[in-house]
Amino acid sequence: MYKILKVLMGFAVLCLLVQNAQAQGMGNTPYSRYGLGEMNYNLGGIRNAGMGGTGVSAGNSFQINTANPALLYYNNITIFDMGIAGQVKTLNNGSNTQTDGDANLANVTLGVPLSKRWTSAISLRPYSAMDYEITGAAESLPGSPAVVQRLYSGEGGLSEIYFGHGFRVAGGLTIGASASYIFGNLTQESSSYVQDTTLSGLSTEMLVYSERTHYSDFLFRAGANYRKKITDKLNLSAGAVYSFQRDWSAEHTSSYQRRSIYDEPVGDEVLSDSTSGSVNVPPSLRVGVSIDNGSNFTVAADYYTQKWSEFRTVDGRQDLADSHRAAVGAEFTPNANAIDSYFKRITYRGGLYYENTPYQINGEQVKDKGITAGFTLPIGMSTIYDMYQLNLAFAYGQRGNTSNDLIKENYLKFNIGVTINSRWFIKRRLE
Fold first, then answer.
1. Is position 428 within any domain?
2. Measured between alpha carbons, how far is 138 from 153 in angstroms, rounded to an integer?
3. Which of 191, 266, 363, 393 is deepest in the core (most CB within 10 A)?
4. Any signal peptide, and if so, which residues (predicted)?
5. Residue-wise pLDDT tens digits, 307-354
């Protein structure tokens, strides 16, 4: 077992290096051109994704939940969790459609109990992703048969290294705190080229304006949860997580360059600006309630809000709105100890969510809504020392619409990962 864990953690380190070296794109996502890109709002794991993204108050002994650091306390044995997330989407602007998709590392998490009242966890996960390509409408030049074609693109992403702690204070009250290091690059380009069939050469080159911003700073969160028995078989939990406002350091450079229509440089790059500054990342609040029977059944509801209207770019631009998200979810395991049916040992999940995203375009705030499903499949035979689980989650939803010059995204998201629970620091007599 220890050899397997060493291999998995070695692979996790490799994933960290790979993720740091490449973009974290999720296919063509036009709305990611705003702010810090498309945000990763699932701060938990695949279990949370299958329950509509809920989980602020829903602790679990065998599934680590980093959405609320106060819930880490409930993981009283060492737990390793790793997952991959991806999506396939269809974009529609009212006249044209396009299908895109991609997949990337979702999280690598290790949780270790340090005492009977204290559990700690470290995790790597995406914070945001930027990946879009937009072709603007051709514009005619007055008094000429030529037209100007404009292109817009962006790529990159921010990663988060999370370090959290959860403590039991007394009774059903637990508290937690986390510190995260956020780092990464976002690159955005806008280009234009002239098309005129009556002249030669003009349509073979384009002028590109490029902006690259490097972010690196810390993000702090505090959480609490209270769980109380309300009947002989049911428990009620209430939890909250607050993310503090921060001014992140940012290095911003911009340049102009001539390129061929095949994106090959023509001449030297001309640096027009290089500045150091900061961006204001606003505070956020997540609250949730859940009911469970302490065994095989949980129902949860969460609400999330963040004041993105206070966000400012390095050059002072403000192009976002306050976001709000509501979600409900549930999970059920028929019989975790059943020996007559494997399907009774599977955990089944489902959820619904509705969100006012931070993207406000042409006076309209973009909406996102969807339905989720998820499963945890036991792998092999569990023992008092080790437990292996395969986790799956799916979401089908719609973001935006085709009115008011917006883009509608119909998407299918998927998550797949593995969770290993293992009792460390126990000397075994027999292998």
1. no
2. 16
3. 393
4. 1-23
5. 999 998 887 778 899 999 999 999 999 998 888 899 999 999 999 999
Residues β-bridged to residue 197: none
Domain CATH code at residue 43: 2.40.160.60
**Other C-beta atoms lying within 10 Å of the C-beta of residue 277:** 16
> DSSP secondary-structure letter at 245?
P
pTM of the model: 0.87
User: Can you give the residue range of the structural domain that contains 25?
Assistant: 2-422
Distance CA 300, CA 63 (A): 15
Indicate left, alpha or beta for 364 from its phi (over 0: left) and psi (-120 to 50: alpha).
beta
Sign of CA dihedral 25, 410, 82, 303: positive
Number of domains into which the chain is organized: 1
Give 320's DSSP letter: B
Classify residue 207: in a domain, yes or no: yes
Q: What letter does residue 32 receive in the DSSP assignment? A: G
pLDDT in tens, 153-194: 999 999 999 999 999 999 999 999 999 999 999 999 988 877
* Residues whose CB is less than 8 angstroms from the CB of residue 45 and which lie 6 or more positions away in sequence, other chains included: 63, 64, 65, 66, 81, 83, 107, 109, 391, 417, 419
- The amino acid occupying position 262 is Y
- Domain assignment present for 178: yes
Share the mean pLDDT of the chain.
86
Report the length, in residues, of the chain. Answer: 431
Amino acid letter for position 308? W
Dist. CA 375–CA 348, nearest whole Å: 5
Which residues have CB under 8 Å from 294's CB, separation 6+? 233, 235
Angle at 352 between CA 347 and CA 353, to 5 degrees: 130
Neighbour tally for 239: CB within 10 Å: 28
